Amino acid sequence: MSGRPSQEVRASWLRSALTWGRPDAAPLVYTALDLRDRPDNPDHRFDLTVEAGTAVVAIGDEDSGVSDLGGYALGLKRPIAGKVEVFGAPVGAMPHYDLLLFRRRIGYHPVGDGLLQNLSLRDNVALPLRFASDHRLAEVDDRVAALVEDFRLRAVATHRPAAANEEDRRRAAIARALALDPDLVVLEAPFDGLTGRAAQDLLDKVRRRDDGSRRAVFVTAQDLVPSVRRMMDRVIKVVDGAAVEENP
Fold it and tell me: Is residue 1 domain-resident?
């Protein structure tokens, strides 16, 4: 007997997941988050709203708690205190299978790249389309081919990650995050080790949706080069657990 859920069960999960959220809600909202176990100022809380179509970066050192923000948005971890909403849905309170399906609306790039080492770059890009979508095989192949071309991966598409350079691995990982054309993209330290020109090119591709509009982008990092900062709509410095607005 197969352990895979039936088509009827999967359809039921999808209907349930689609009931979460509100169409008019901001893509990502952090409210009164406690980012650290033992803050110097326990009354400080982190508040931030990522509006539709905007690119926002949260910058902080390794002890600031900024590295946890991506996981909170995906529901991979829960904050000590406070609330996280994605499109109006409280991701920390969603049932497991609802959350898995709801994440189709979120593109995610983890620290490093998260690529599977036993797959080619092309197959890594294809993963969300093959396992988290209902696309036909031909549609998957067409979408992957378009992403490989757009992210300049054609010459290395059959390479496994270990045989590719850092920039190509990062291009593949970000292309994978965009495979389902998500409404919100969360990127953890996506430009570390890249040239300013490569980082600018990748951020431009992330912001631009298939229909030409701009998607919501939330980046976490310890720092950004000036040329990339200037592409952001908002730059937030995490200081002693609180969000402090800076000039891009």
Answer: no
Mean pLDDT on 167-182: 95
Total count of domains within the chain? 1
Residue 13, pLDDT above cutoff 50: no
Statement: residue 38 has pLDDT above 80:
no
Are 113 and 172 in contact, with CB atoms under 8 Å apart?
Answer: yes
The predicted pLDDT at position 4 comes to 43
Whether residue 88 is contained in a domain is answered as yes
The DSSP string of 21-56 is S-TTS-SEEEEEE---SS-SSTT--EEEEE-TT-EE
Which structural domain, as residue segments, surrounds residue 119? Answer: 7-246
**For residue 114, what are the CA distances in angstroms to 71, 86, 189?**
14, 22, 12
CATH of the domain at 65: 3.40.50.300
Asked if residue 107 belongs to a domain, the reply is yes
Residue pLDDT, tens place only, 124-159: 999 988 886 666 788 888 999 999 999 999 999 999
**Is residue 16 in a domain?**
yes
Q: Are 173 and 128 in contact (CB under 8 A)?
A: no
